Each structure stands twice: as structure tokens, then as C-alpha cells.
Amino acid sequence: MNRKYFKPGSLTWWSGFVPLAGGTFIAFEPVHQLAEYTAAVSSMFGDVSPAVPINAGLALIGLRGASG
Questions:
Q1: Can you give the residue ranges of every domain in the chain?
Q2: Dihedral angle at the C-alpha atoms of 18, 10, 13, 31, nearest 10 degrees?
Q3: Measured between alpha carbons, how far is 10 from 57 in angstroms, rounded to an integer?
Q4: Which of 8, 29, 49, 50 has its CA 20 to 30 A from that of 37?
């Protein structure tokens, strides 16, 4: 099995995964209804739309896969 994009030993992979997970958590706030935690996570990313950290995370993971 080829794990081109899944490299948990890479710092670049983790720096892409964290905003991806954070943006996903922010986007699903209506589902889990943890408004206080969502506000805290959102403030870590500069109170932007959830799409921004999700796209940034996907871009970093994609760059890691392309370089590697």
C-alpha cells in the first residue's frame, strides 16, 4: 500500500494535519455544540472561516506528498 500523503513522522505532515483537524472541528460546531471549545480553537487560527485552516492543512499535506 502506497502511503504517499500519510507520513506521521514528518513535521510538515503534522503542521498540515493540525489546521485540517482544527478547521474540521470548527466547521462541525452545529453538530457537536461545543461553542466554548470552538471559539477557543477558532481564535487560535485568527477567527477566520473554517475553510481557511482546512485548505491550508490540505495544501501542506499535499506539498509533503509531492516532495517526497
A1: 11-67
A2: -40
A3: 14
A4: 8
Placement of cell 462541525 in the chain: 28
Sign (positive or negative) of CA dihedral 25, 46, 34, 29: negative
pLDDT in tens, 37-51: 999 999 999 999 999
**Does residue 23 contact residue 49 with C-beta atoms inside 8 Å?**
no
* 2-39 confidence digits (pLDDT tens): 788 888 898 999 999 999 999 999 999 999 999 999 99
